[in-house]
Amino acid sequence: MAAAGPSGPVMSREEVDRAIARLGSEYEAIESSLLALQDHAGRRLLEGAELTGETKERWAAAEPAIPLLWAHFDAYGTALHAARELRGRRRWPSPGDLAELTDLLRGSGVTVSGGALPDLARTLTGPARLSEQISLEQLVERMNGWYQQVIEVVSASDAVWSALPARIDLLSAEAQRVRSLARSVGVMPGEHPAGDDLERLIADLAALRAEVVADPLAFWLTPRGVAGGRPDTRRYDRAEHELEDIRREVEAVLHVRDDAEHRLLRLRDVLSRADRTLTEARAARGEVLAKIAASEVPAVNGPANVLREQLAAAAEYHRAGQWHRLSPLLDGLEQSADEELDRARASLTAVTAPLAVRAELRGRLDAYKAKAARHGMAEDPLLVERYDQARRLLWSAPCDLRAAEHAVRRYQQAVAEVLVPGQGGPSDRGGESR
């Protein structure tokens, strides 16, 4: 059994060699991490930034650990060099060498300065002292704690700075482009809601960028129970969506500007057609009243003057380049104009309905006369009598539609009767061909 020393059982030669090899690998890994931290862009940005809020507090607590990490690393290297030098004296170390190596590798054989430790470090080391003796294992544990505290602040800040400011700058540039486009079509703050929203959004983006630069950790999300984290882009995402809505609104106004002349011409044409249709309906109503008796003819309303006033206002907005005012006016005016044309057409149809009925009765009378003629019955006295009676009613003015319709129906019945065999049809009148 190995002899016991102040640090426990004395290590064997193989144990010493394995411990020195492990400590050498740890030394290289720690050195790589410290050099990476030294060159980390996030650390350089933190050192030069005017920080506020959470980032200022956490960086003030973490930054003093950086020189301590290097000081402890130097102490670690010195102890490792001493162990290697002692082990290298002879191939087969003496018991005294092994005892000294055991104390150096496992015992509290590393001297570090404690007077310069900040408050955060003293929570790990106890009351402040000018120097202290610790083991290599304690030294590595202490360094790992400090390094983790520093790298969390550095990495999270760098991740936020890498993710947000450049994107905010691009979005701000796009907002400026939309602002130029908006002003070209009259979408100005105080005159159009989109203009007000755009100015507020530009100010919000500037404020957001300033906050991100000064306090990046305020924009770092760390889910509970999950390692790592991610930048909080929620405010940026909302601004991006809002800018897209404003851009669509401005482009809609721009479309109005580009298409306004065509839309105004179409509106004038639709309203002109509605006026002509109403004029035709009024003329037709006079004709119906003169030619059709005992018929209720609906009155024809005049043109919708309010639409003409709105059209004049739209033309004025067009001349003045007030596209943001023209846009909603045209949308409503187009629908109203189409409805006005439909109303005029419906009025014309309603007014001319009695004339259409008379025309239909005339056509039906002539069709049945032709049918009787095809069967050789055109000169039948009954048919001639009833035809003449219906024709007088249909071609007289004013025409009594009820009496005329009754007369046409009687003529239809007479034609049907004379063409049915056994009821005075051609077969009963000398066997004429059907």
Structure description:
This protein has 14 helices and eight strands. It is mainly α. The protein has four domains: 155 residues, no CATH class; 86 residues, no CATH class; 89 residues, no CATH class; 54 residues, no CATH class. The chain has a two-stranded antiparallel sheet. A two-stranded antiparallel sheet has the order 3-4. The chain has a two-stranded antiparallel ribbon with strand order 5-6. 28% of the residues are buried. Keywords: Coiled coil.
In short:
The chain is mainly α and 434 residues long. The chain has 14 helices and 8 strands. The strands form 4 sheets. It has a two-stranded antiparallel sheet. A two-stranded antiparallel ribbon has the order 3-4. Strands 5-6 form a two-stranded antiparallel sheet.
Mean pLDDT: 83
How many strand segments? Answer: 8
The tally of structural domains comes to 4
Topology pattern, helix = H, strand = E: EEHHHHHEHEHHHEEHEHHHEH
Contiguous runs where pLDDT drops below 50 for at least 5 residues: 1-5, 422-434
The percentage of residues in β strands lies in: under 5%
What count of helical segments does DSSP give? 14
Radius of gyration computed on alpha carbons: 51 Å
Task: Report on the biggest sheet.
Answer: 2 strands, antiparallel
